[in-house]
Amino acid sequence: MLCRFYLRRSVVYIPTYGMIEKGFYRAVEPVTVVSVSNTEALRRAFQDAITRGNPRVPKLPRGQWPPPITLKHAGLKTWGEFNRGASYWGIEEEGGIFRVVAHRQHTRQGWKEDPERSETFPSGSSADEVVSRMITILQTTASPSSAH
After folding, report:
1. How far apart are CA 119 and CA 122, in angstroms?
2. DSSP bridge pairs for 97
3. I need a labelling partner for 72 at 20 to 30 A (CA). Which of 11, 34, 47, 125 fits?
């Protein structure tokens, strides 16, 4: 299970990640948009995304790729504009092991995993534990007193 999302200006954007084929995903509807300060709405949004999982989606020819779905929900036109001031995160589960995955900007419009800020949970950890930790990380990251 793969759940990726963005924090931008105290708003969390959680698209559904549809599986094109094993190991390849693309963001699709539904996209949930939640204020980072609304803990319970954020908890429900993550639980819904985890429950939804990664539905199969068709592979599109390169010329038919739509613009990033998150732009529409943010009311922006370019990916570069969205990425400025955004942070990119993920929750992954494989073989019963959950990970919170932090990313850092790698190029002007790309992201790369940041292993120093990523966390692997012990076997047997619940999705609820991971979601609670993720909410804490996001709320701390969004705090005006935190260093970005």
Report:
1. 10
2. 94
3. 47
As a whole number, the mean pLDDT across the chain is 92
Q: Is the dihedral of CA 39, 41, 44, 48 positive or negative?
A: negative
Residue whose tokens read 């931008």:
8
Q: Which CATH superfamily is domain 2-142 in?
A: NMB0488-like (3.40.1590.10)
What's the pLDDT band for 79 if we cut at 50, 70, 90? confident
Distance, CA of 17 to CA of 147 (rounded, Å):
29
pLDDT surpassing 80 at residue 144: no
CA distance 107 to 136: 27
Task: Give residue 146's pLDDT.
Answer: 55
Q: How far is CA 24 from CA 1, 19, 60, 116, 129, in A?
A: 12, 6, 12, 24, 26
What's the pTM? 0.92
**Checking DSSP bridges between strand 2-8 and strand 86-94, what pairing results, if any?**
antiparallel
Q: Residue range 110-125: average pLDDT?
A: 94
Tokens 């990640």 belong to residue: 17
